[in-house]
Description:
The complex is a heterodimer of chains A (230) and B (87). With 230 residues, chain A is α/β, with parallel strands linked by helices. Chain A has nine helices and seven strands; from the N terminus they run E-H-H-E-H-H-E-H-H-E-H-E-H-E-E-H. In chain A, helix 1 (16-23) packs across helix 3 and helix 3 (47-55) packs antiparallel against helix 6 (100-112). Chain A starts with 11 loop residues before the first strand and ends with a helix. With 87 residues, chain B is mainly alpha-helical. The two termini of chain B are 46 Å apart.
Amino acid sequence: MSEDGGAAPAPYVLDVSVLSAITRGDYGIMTFIQGLDASGQPLVIPALAIVAASLDLRSDDTEAILHGLERLGAVMIAPLRDAEQAVRLAAVIARTGLDPWDAHVAAVADAAVCPILTLDPAMWREHAADLDEPLHVIEIADPGEAPGGGPGALGSCQRPRKCRTLPGQGPSPRVRALCGAVPARFPLLPGVMRTGRAACVFPTSPPHKAKRARSGTLLLSSETKGSRRG
Amino acid sequence: MSDRKTRVTVTIDPDLAAYAERLVEAGKAPSVSAVVNGALEAERQRDQKARRLWREAAEHADPDKVARMLAHVEAQAAQLPASHRYR
Lengths: 230, 87
């Protein structure tokens, strides 16, 4: 039972660095993720982050690893559900200069009030204050390992898709206008929620979110893994 | 385990049903049941491969290192604002 009276733990949002390590078959990270899953820690994976992790390493094994990741009980996929969410994601991209996949991670973490789990905290520190509320980041690292501890060491993450925004290249006036027209904080949440054995209920309207949510603009559906089995 | 086939009633999308019928008509499958059976077998193999890869990871990982990583993450999570820790 938690110190918060039995409340479920907030999900962690996995970013591209973590997913890339998984698709590379990093034993340590894969086992770490299984450890979180076994402990009942909900994990959210933005769909565009999967795109990024899949882009540079496409193989049957990669597909199978991602399939296995999705099958973990505590894992939820956050898709880009509709045109409204797509436009709002564009606003986050314009506002932060992040690549779409990173922006999707940021948007989901921001909307759901969840920390981002990453191997690349430096990248997120640059953007922690880009949105109205600060992004919170949890770094995956082995504190017993020397900094930069050699090839494959944690922290020497290889992000497959670096930000393509060139120095000095800001969003276009049209995109800036779009950004200004859309509320910065929005509920870019999974359209299909699958709750695992951890009773990881993704937040829809927690009290602390009430003033941030745009009422009447979001329909969330919730479906358990069990109920998906016809 | 018996080799006898089990009869089940399932509901599938019309386009998939039509696809299965076309395979049978084209002589690519002996029956719609065989098509469904094959699809389920492929899904089972996909699941088995995924499980094997994740199991191999756990077998090859350094458990002490993973434990340290988990503890490190837990320590950071404990420092988060309550809004980011609980639902």
